[in-house]
Amino acid sequence: MSKKKKNDPYVTRDECFQISGEIRRDISTIKKTLVGEDLRGGIVKDMQEIKSATGAIKTVVVPIVISVLSALITYGLLQFFGR
């Protein structure tokens, strides 16, 4: 093959393979980061675990806080109007 000229607008086949190989490696790295090697891990799994943990907080802690606050408000109103 001939050498590439200085202002040649075309890409050689070897350059194309080199560039596409780099892109494929980058995409592979991103995929492994997102879903893991076995498609069951990575950031997606971490986000699901966080979502599950916050779901437990919403279903347990929030009702308790609402109950305590409503009891305190009721107590305060009864003290104020009970005089």
Task: Sum up the structure in keywords.
mainly alpha; 2 helices; 83 residues
Q: Main beta sheet, described?
A: none
Class by alpha and beta content: mainly alpha
Mean pLDDT over all positions: 86
Distance between the termini: 101 Å
Q: Tell me the overall shape.
A: rod-shaped
Task: Describe the protein.
This protein is an all-alpha fold. Helices cover 76% and strands 0% of the residues. It is built from 2 helices and no strands. It has helices at 13-35, 42-81. Helix 1 (13-35) packs parallel to helix 2. The longest helix has 40 residues, at 42-81. The relative contact order is 0.05.
Write the layout of secondary structure elements.
Blueprint: H1 13-35, H2 42-81
Helix pairs in contact: 1-2
Brief account:
With 83 residues, the protein is an all-alpha fold.
